[in-house]
Each structure stands twice: as C-alpha cells, then as structure tokens.
Design a protein that fits this description.
This protein has about 200 residues and is an all-beta fold. The protein is about 0% helix and about 45% strand. It contains no helices and twelve strands. The protein has strands at about 25, 30-35, 45-50, 80-90, 95-105, 110-120, 125-130, 135, 140-145, 155, 170-180, 185-195. The chain has a four-stranded antiparallel sheet with strand order 7-6-11-12, with no helix packed on it. It has a three-stranded antiparallel sheet with strand order 1-2-3, with no helix packed on it. It has a three-stranded antiparallel sheet with strand order 4-5-10, with no helix packed on it. The protein starts with about 20 loop residues before the first strand and ends with a strand.
Length: about 200
C-alpha cells in the first residue's frame, strides 16, 4: 500500500493475502485502487490492482487524481578538489623554479600531477609530469611524497628554468590526479603570481 499509484511512491502499509479493504476510488487507468490503509485506519493508500481482487461495480468508483510523484533526493557525488596557493620561487646555482602549495580539500588521494609554469615575460613554458610530488629546498634538501592524502598540504616545485623568475609574472596550472600517470579523476587549478 503506497501513498500514490506507483512504485515511485513510498510504502505506508500493506494489504495482506486474504485481507479485505473498502475501495474509495481508482486512478484513471484502473490499475490502482484507493483504499483505507489496513495498518492505519484513519489514512488512505493506493494498492496495485495486480495483487487485488475487486468485487462490485468498480466502474462506478470516482477517479482520484494521484498526488504528484515524489521529487528524487539529490545526493552529491563526492569529487576530488584542492586549493592552490603561490608560495614564491627557489633556486640552486643557475636554475630556478616556481613553488606552490596544494591542499587536498577532498576525501580522495592524489597520486600524480601535471604542473605547468608560463613565464609571461620571456614566454618560456615548462611542464612537469610526475607520479608523486617533490619539494626542492634550494640546494640543501629535497622532500618527496608519493601521495597527497585528504586534508594534507604540500609545497611542490616546478620544472627547472635556466633564468631567474624574479619579478616575472608567472601563470601556473596544476592538475592533480587520483591515479598514477595522470589518470583516474583529474582536477585543475590556476594561479598567477610574481615572485
């Protein structure tokens, strides 16, 4: 027994085998019958004619307009996401690189990336495709992470440039992916900055 004539309506009772109920109306196609709810006598519900045997002149029953079909509840599908913030540039000897901080703001784990830096002054563009993530700290240390987990932050270093990036406007595009080799679900962010 449902609140409307069809399977899209929620159930609100049951008419068991051998149980009888008084019919008060029908839908326009004579497939569903409007009855007093056997489980809640002060309420009414619709029962499918396939499972009910009618006695009496059903054609004399009034045709009831069914309630509107229920609106489906939308459940958002989680998607990977991250924040991107410029942190500057670094160098070692005669090489320079841009640095940005990524913060995983989703429940997904990132495993690979594409990191592109365009120096808009020299029009030189460098792209780095990697599994894992690297932060170079000048000439002294390098930190490598295989993944960036949910709520983790990490500073990542770009491909190397042969000239300084100081006072050059940079356009940085970072794409993080949930699988190795830039596969799985990939999402991108852009930041412009001048180190």
């Amino acid at each position: 027994c449902r609140i409307g004539p069809g399977r899209v309506y929620p159930r609100q009772g049951a008419l068991l085998v051998g149980e009888t109920a008084e019919v008060f109306g029908r839908n326009p196609t004579n497939e569903y019958w409007y009855i007093r709810n056997p489980d809640k006598p002060n309420e009414f519900c619709w029962v499918w004619g396939e499972y009910a045997t009618l006695t009496g002149p059903f054609a004399l029953l009034p045709i009831f307009t069914p309630p509107p079909t229920p609106t489906p509840t939308f459940t958002a599908t989680p998607a990977p996401s991250f924040g991107l913030k410029a942190t500057g540039m670094d160098s070692c000897g005669s090489t320079w690189w841009a640095e940005v901080e990524v913060k995983n703001t989703s429940s997904f784990v990132f495993k690979s990336m594409e990191y592109t830096v365009l120096d808009t002054v020299t029009d030189i563009e460098k792209t780095l495709l990697t599994n894992g993530f690297t932060n170079k700290d000048g000439c002294s240390a390098t930190t490598i992470k295989d993944t960036i987990a949910s709520n983790d932050s990490f500073i990542i270093s770009s491909a190397l440039f042969d000239a300084t990036l100081q006072n050059h406007k940079l356009r940085v595009d970072v794409t993080l992916c949930t699988e190795l080799n830039q596969k799985g679900i990939c999402v991108s962010q852009r930041v412009n900055f001048t180190p």
